Amino acid sequence: MTDSEQKIETAVIRTQTPASPHREHSSAIYMTSSFTFEDAEHARALFAREAEGQIYTRYGNPNVDEFIEKMCQLEGAPAGIALASGMSAVFTALAGLLNSGDHVLASRAVFGSTHQILTRILPRWGIGHSYVDGMDAEGWATAVRPTTRLCLVETPSNPALDLIDLAWLGEFCRARDIILLVDNVFATPVLQRPLTFGAHLVMHSATKYIDGQGRAIGGVLVGDRFLIDELTGFIRHTGPSLSPFNAWLFSKSLETLPLRMERHCANALKLAEFLEGQPQVAWVKYPHLPSHPQYELAKRQMKAGGGMVTFAVQGGLAQGRRFLDALQLCSLTANLGDTRTIATHPASTTHSSLTEEERQAVGISPGLIRISVGLEAVEDVMADVAQALAQSADDR
Ligand SMILES: *Cc1c(COP(=O)(O)O)cnc(C)c1O
């Protein structure tokens, strides 16, 4: 059976760096800064890119290549690069592809550090941006400029779990020769493959579901071969390379990504349904709940609803904080996509630097709680959430 005939679940398990003379079953870790040349001519050919082979780990490494190959299989991408973090993937795409005078169009609810890059760093180099509300088709058409060279979106958004119609936006961008870059961290390629909807590039923070166990920081960009080639040249010299050890960790983790996502999604759907029935809960947002305003789109665009659930406790900031303080099983930490269920209160933490109006514009009410549903028995997670909800209301 050739690789292209294999199901994705098989390919991410069976794709592997050729074994060393030791015939190891699981991939070895190549902790080496450089690789040796056979002779002067081999060295010359490698540097001239006339021969295939490793030179120096800033340029490439067997573990990093294995991880990239699997990510390309998962996203259906022709090419990719791996980076030291999700943010270095975002920064590399923007700094590596844009020129002074270019304009970026982004969905309003982007990751906090992405917002910082757009508002604080790129303007220093004469690169501007505008924000558009994700689902506002007219807004995109009004905000686009002749200088718009790249669109950057996250769907589902963090933490409001609003969706952007990728097929629509893919067409919008292609009609105008604009590069579409999708941050696919929340959905993972198991649930959503933006390239099939017309995106040119997809980025991931491997730190989240790809590692899936909260152990390491990393990032990846996959997509159009021409764009990736341009970025490959850019990172060779700017050096945001992924370490071989982290690449090895992520590559091993990808073996279980399809299986883990199945459980994350099943647990999250059960928790979302449970929350909808609780009197202390004002509203619940989950892409594959029929009550989600974009349920039809979610069904079209995402294979399952994902591992993130957002809801609001009745009351406001005080009740939201009390809910968090009452949790016993769920972790309070600034991460997501872990085997362990994690709760966050964006209004007092991740989004506290925004004004109340800015928070409202991205759908963050004072009592909003974001849960990254883990792989524990969901009954235990629900029991913890239920007792914390009771306390959030009791102490009023
Ligand atoms: C975490 C995250 C990032 C940044 O990734 P790092 O690995 O922390 O640099 C970007 N986008 C989204 C949606 C994220 O959740």
What does this structure look like?
It is built from 15 helices and twelve strands. It is α/β, with parallel strands linked by helices. It folds into two domains: 3-30 and 61-254, Aspartate Aminotransferase, domain 2 (3-Layer(aba) Sandwich); 257-394, Alpha-Beta Complex (Aspartate Aminotransferase, domain 1), CATH 3.90.1150. Strands 1-7-6-5-4-2-3 form a seven-stranded mixed β-sheet, sandwiched between helices. It has a five-stranded mixed β-sheet with strand order 8-9-12-11-10. Helix 3 (62-75) packs parallel to helix 10 (244-254) and helix 4 packs across helix 9. It is globular. The termini are far apart. The model has no long low-confidence stretch (mean pLDDT 95). It binds pyridoxal-5'-phosphate (PLP). Pyridoxal-5'-phosphate binds at residues 85-87, 111, 154, 158, 183, 185-186, 205, 207-208, 217, 219.
SSE layout and pairing:
Layout: H1 8-14, H2 40-47, H3 62-75, E1 79-83, H4 86-97, E2 103-107, H5 112-121, E3 128-132, H6 137-143, E4 148-154, H7 166-175, E5 179-183, H8 188-191, E6 201-205, E7 219-223, H9 225-238, H10 244-254, H11 257-276, E8 281-285, H12 295-301, E9 308-313, H13 317-326, E10 331-332, E11 342-344, H14 356-361, E12 368-372, H15 378-394
Parallel strand pairs: 2-3, 2-4, 4-5, 5-6, 10-11
Antiparallel strand pairs: 1-7, 6-7, 8-9, 9-12, 11-12
Helix pairs in contact: 3-10, 4-9, 13-15
The structure holds pyridoxal-5'-phosphate (PLP).
